[in-house]
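User: Second chain of the day. Same drill as before.
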Amino acid sequence: PGMQAGRYDFIAAPTTVTKERAENMLFTAGYLWTAYQFGIKKGSAPIKSWADLKGKSVSVNKGTPYEKLAKEMGEKHGFTVQVYDTQPDATQAVISGRAYATLGGNTTIVFAASKNPQFVADLELKDTRAHWAAPVPKNNPKLRAELQDALDCMKKDGTMAKFYEKWFNKKPDADDLAVVITPGYGVPGMPGYDPTPHELKCG
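Assistant: Same format as last time:
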């Protein structure tokens, strides 16, 4: 609302691109995937599918999309869901053995794993992947282009990959948005996407 009212030029905080949002704002291309991911205790058997959780407990942060999905899948696959006030509490439940796994956002899970040797980032639900990008007002494609050019140049020269490695203690995958430069401006397949090719000039 602040940006739409003209108080800000753009939003710097990572913003998940959805169809509804893209109809009201212009987004740069994504610079990081956001997705749902499991975290487990070191030494536990990796999760390959929801079915592997039968008879186990999954911890989640209260009031999040992860709680909603876990409860739906728990009924379907026969596991229980423990709800905690914060994601760190849900993570601690796994480390202490109260829960087998926790379901949360991939950035939160991977960051927690980089800080705690007893906690491991496990299965990422690839079908939940969405772009994290920077939105600008719908009437300012020039600013969107400037921001995306800067982000794409940071991908090209490896700056974005260095940031990724610093925060998550691992290199980005080859298909990660921290290194992949998508064509055009915006998120392919979303409202506001401009597929026009452009030459990237990095100073």
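Residues 45 and 52 are 9 Å apart (CA to CA).

User: Great, on to the next one.
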